[in-house]
Amino acid sequence: MRKLIVNGDDFGFNREVTNGIIECHTRGILTSTTLMVNMPAAEYAAEKGKKYPNLSIGIHLNLTTGKPLSAPEKIPALLGPDGNFKKQKDMFKLANRFQLSSEQVERELSAQIEKFLSFGIVPTHCDSHHHTAACMQIFPIKLKLLNKYKIKRLRTHRGFYRFDKTSPQKLKVFAKMLKTNTIRLPYRVYHELQHIYCRFKGYRLPDFRYGFSKVISVPPLKPDIISWRKLIENMPPGIAEFCTHPGLPSEDPMDSPMFREQRIADYNLLVDPECKKICREKNVELINFSEL
């Protein structure tokens, strides 16, 4: 049994990202998405998403990009001098050292879930922007709120790192795999414990999170059909989430030029009909988060 959820993060980031995600669902293989409720196109995205009943829409909890929904004076520990959330690296450092205000984190994340519900839709699942909610201080707060709002499906941070069995350079691939897994070992252990705990508490998660960066190969995989075929061929049994960030071209200053290029590359791949054809050939069933 091999099943694959293709999730598009950042729904509502702007109209270009939102429209790109919708097209990847209607024309391609994207099955689920997660909405950033504090971003400019959030309401636009929610209204668009309602038109597609087979698109699972979850919440993309966000503590690293844009302005908060809470009053700034209520959550000063989460904000930079410009009134926006702190930068990703600063938020990670504080959250993993337990130097944030848990009360302020809970206030803002609650506001985001309430905003999502105000759009008249119920989140099918939950993940977080830049994976911030996996940080040690934020993780238990997230679970407390998911329990409160009865959200039972979420992204796992249990990555899947392995070598590409089809590579002729097996020795080089093995050395790279060994190095990569050694460097990531502390995170792998922590995320494995998170995964086990969530399953024990009754949450529904994919068996692992998948992506081009999770397959160790020489040369590295990239968003194209050749790499997609390798990824699907090497996918082990179970249910995986393939995490993507598709979008149409934009000049949004909040999005870095490098990330805008990634969005276009992800979009071009996900709408390519060959992707679905390869999944059928390799007996990989596409599902959405609602089917977990």
Describe the structure in your own words:
The protein is of the alpha/beta class and 292 residues long. The chain has one domain: Glycoside hydrolase/deacetylase (TIM Barrel), CATH 3.20.20.370. It has helices at residues 15-27, 42-49, 88-96, 102-118, 138-148, 170-183, 185-200, 225-234, 257-270, 273-281, and strands spanning 2-11, 32-35, 56-61, 126-128, 162-163, 208-210, 215-216, 238-244, 285-287. The strands form 2 sheets. Strands 1, 2, 3, 4, 6, 8 and 9 form a 7-stranded parallel sheet that branches. A two-stranded parallel ribbon has the order 5-7. Helix 1 (15-27) links the parallel strand 1 and strand 2. The model has no long low-confidence stretch (mean pLDDT 95).
Instruction: State the secondary-structure class.
Output: alpha/beta
Name the CATH superfamily classification. Glycoside hydrolase/deacetylase
Number of helices: 10
CATH domain fold name: TIM Barrel
CATH class: Alpha Beta
The CATH architecture can be given as Alpha-Beta Barrel
